[in-house]
Amino acid sequence: AQNVFHFKLVLLGDASVGKSCLVVRFAKGEFYEYQEPTIGAAFMTQTVNLNSEVVKYEIWDTAGQERYKSLVPMYYRGAAAAVIVYDITSKESFDAAKGWVSELQGTNTLIALAGNKVDLEASRVVEREAVRAYAEQMGVLFMETSAKSGQNVQELFREIAVRLPKD
Ligand code: GTP
Ligand code: MG
User: Which stretches are annotated as coiled coil (predicted)?
Assistant: First the structure.
């Protein structure tokens, strides 16, 4: 028999970085060029099967637009994991991601940093190696992803599932 574990996971990051697209790619295997901006937050569930364990994520996909910013702590409070997303073509979005890392550091939330839109390599402004060094220094998981191509999306949620403490 497999043990089933439930974890609350939250997505954080600037508007338009691709939080909703990452969740939709992970949960449904789909991608929409015209994904609507999230209003408040959206909820979804998805499961990851590990060897002898099943991880059931309860996912809160928050809204990145400024007007919703005051709501966000309500969603990350008590989360087992946070995926902090930036867009590799936006320096501003990476600065915002660092702000979220600082805000969640020192809590019990496992932090993963996702540099999304890696399919737009030609427009990259945030260097991978610099972020890798930053992530290592902060002790957070780091992956570059593409909700569009699917690159590293399953891997990201799987790696978080592996690392989450289960007891
Ligand atoms: P808010 O809900 O407003 O906070 O935005 P969000 O972070 O949820 O962004 P969303 O998922 O709505 O994506 C914004 C735009 O970026 C959409 O037009 C997507 O099609 C596009 N997008 C998302 N992920 C990717 C990606 O990996 N590659 C490319 N090229 N475009 C992407
Ligand atoms: Mg969204």
Answer: none
Q: Which residue has the tokens 């600037």?
A: 14
Ligand 1 atom closest to the Cα of residue 21 is: 11
Q: What is the pLDDT of residues 19-43, one digit of tens each?
A: 999 999 999 999 999 999 999 999 9
DSSP string computed for 114-165 = EEE-GGGGGG--S-HHHHHHHHHHHT-EEEE--TTT-TTHHHHHHHHHHHS-
CA 43 to chain centre: 14
ipTM of this model? 0.99
- Residue 69 C-alpha to ligand 2 middle, in angstroms? 13
Q: Is the CB of 37 under 6 A from ligand 1?
A: yes
pTM for this prediction: 0.98
In the 8-state DSSP scheme, what is residue 71?
G
